[in-house]
Amino acid sequence: MTSNNSRNRYQKVKQNGEATHEEEQKEYEEFAIRESPLTTLLDSSIHIRTIYHIFVVILLVLICDTVIFDLVENGKINIGLSVVATGFGDMRRVFKLWVYEFIVSMSLYPLLLAYSWIGAISRKYPALRPTVVMLGVIGVIALEVAVAAVPLFDMGRKQLPVGSTAIVTGEMLRFMMKLVAIASACGPRCLNGTPLPTFKLHIYFMFAPTLIYRDQYPRTKKIRWGVVVFHLLEVAAVIFYISFLWEIVIVPNWADYGKEKTVAISTVVRSMFASVLPGTISVLCGFYCVLHSWLNAWSEMLKFGDRLFYEDWWTASCFSQYFRRWNLVVHSWLRDHIYLPLATYAGRSLATFSVFFVSAIAHEVFMTLMCGFFYPVLLVQFGVLGVILVPLTEKAGRRYPNAFNLLLWFGFSIGNGILWSLYPMEYFARRNCPPSENDSFFIPKSWTCPEVVLKPNWTFQNPLF
């Protein structure tokens, strides 16, 4: 039933001439048994598997470099495990917050049963229907607030480590989106008398690697526990990989930022460009960790057949393709619950802007809670530059795919280098700079401390003469 509603909304958008070229070709795709693109590429192409091996070798070389240097220089071995232990500290508190989020999310099912009883009454008295609908909307909003309120209050009262905050915040946003998906699918059933799904299906959806609710999903026949273990080992390896890059690249470049009253602009620029490569590698590894390894591990454990969590975003030649392909799990939710409803009545432009706005705010909430301060770098990159680049690269990217794919990768790398520079700058500035009465959660401290200056007697020299 939910599938038909979404498909009907899509057809209405298409009839109004507001569907994109890619949507016109793909139309509305349902769930099917299929592997992730990287799984297919790794199994079918020795060249792609070699690239996978190269990333493993880079990690091993970095480990050898650090281990040998520290052993010779200091007589000890440092391989970044301290960063992992620190970043994922206070796990007992994390578990308590997750249990709270889960219990609130599960409470939707008995509320749906009660709402179904109220819906039966409204069918006898049609005049009550608008009031009952409004009651349902208010109930969903109340649950959304309940899921978010306690974790936000708790983390605001006492900051969790970065990795632990990422877990709590990520799960909070995931449960909130799942509540919307279930409510939009089952709310109309409560009003028209259609039977609700079973409690078992409700639980399954809470853990299933999708944000789109269906009464049934394509299932595989058995669980391959070897595949599960392999993907979980990949998750652990990527966490260690990123922590190791932080330990050997980011910390040496930015740990002393703010200890001196002034810093040369050449030092800042050099450190920012030094962060481009590790920042890009870290984001690629993070993508692989979450959208490939983690989701494939859960898919295998739950026999969830559709593993198309992303598409070949790395071949995109325009930013609209990149944003659609990077994360199909979230993209599908944004399409069904924001884009299609708005595009049907308000037009594609407003719907697209709303999708970017909601996504940018969610990303910024995630980064703010994880860092412990408000510094809207990602909000500007995603919600401003991203919106601008989508129409600018739409036609030209399709005409000159190779050139614009190169441009996309250049922007991707520089953008991540900026993220991996400005956030550490602010983080260490707040730790190293002396306290001030002007300190604020919302005003970046790195703007005023330290002072970024040119070298004394600096002059521009023409390199051609």
Automatic annotation (TrEMBL):
Q: Which domain of life is it from?
A: Eukaryota
Spell out the protein name for this chain: Uncharacterized protein
Source organism of this protein record: Mythimna loreyi
